Predict the structure.
Amino acid sequence: MKNAKSLTHISCEDVFKIYKIADLEVVALRGLDLEVESGEMIAIVGASGSGKSTLLNILAGYDLPSAGKVSVLGRDLLSMSSSEIEGYRRTKVGFIWQQTGRNMFPYLTAIENVELPMMLIGDKPEKRRKRAEHLLELVGLSERMDHTQDRLSGGEQQRVAIAISLSNNPPLLLADEPTGELDDATAGEVMKVFESVNQELNTTIMIVSHDQDIAYKVDRVVLIRDGKLSTEITRDKSVGDGNELEEFIIVDGSGRVQVPKTLLDQTKIERRAKVRVDDKGVILEPGDANK
Ligand SMILES: Nc1ncnc2c1ncn2[C@@H]1O[C@H](COP(=O)(O)OP(=O)(O)OP(=O)(O)O)[C@@H](O)[C@H]1O
Ligand SMILES: [Mg+2]
């Protein structure tokens, strides 16, 4: 049973990330606002290059934003010292890389891989082994504990990756396209593991995906476009079997919205628009001559 969601787990406020290569600047995030509640399971969906991995890397403490505020469980990530960040990465956040091969040490068995992060924080061998066994059971791999990477299928490797990421019982799990390299059936199984982790351990989970259909498996999907959130999709639990999707445009802290390109094309709105209010809400109409 899921606990009541109330505490804000992640808060991003007007976050910018600019990468500089020689004289060239790439704006990967441009004023991104995002709030995630404790125990929420959320997906980030967006085109290639829209800033998804950049956001995840910042939340994981691997990178810092160029501007803006980022806090996780009330702690400001920008004001942490490097040793605090290291502690944060080891105990507060689990991370799953998209590239299956990057999540495991190939010469260690599944159970040794799961034990490793616990070793780094000084847990005793007996405690480590017990917890690693429990986590591998949770991801359905009790029969594969002594297998090395080359003796595990892609889906099994990603399930080990989930167990590894949970080894120090982090309250937050970040997964960058964890099912990107898997076939549909295996991806479905891995998603089920995320669901049970979210339900049983109440871990806040953020999953990057290319696939909007992930909306049926998570609490909320946010779409990222050009480094900003544009749209949010949730299930409307009040209709039918509760699987009807509802789409919303995000209104950011400064009142900005991104109107989907399809709607702009449909309404022939180009450079500027007229805004008025009627009894249903705000109406956007093509500006006079679209100059
Ligand atoms: N280390 C870096 N140095 C320079 N530019 C970078 C760096 N990392 C990312 N970028 C650029 O920032 C933008 C956002 O990249 P990011 O990796 O966050 O995209 P993404 O949404 O994860 O894409 P994908 O779906 O392809 O993984 C891209 O234009 C990318 O080229
Ligand atoms: Mg990426």
Remarks:
- The chain has a mean pLDDT of 90.
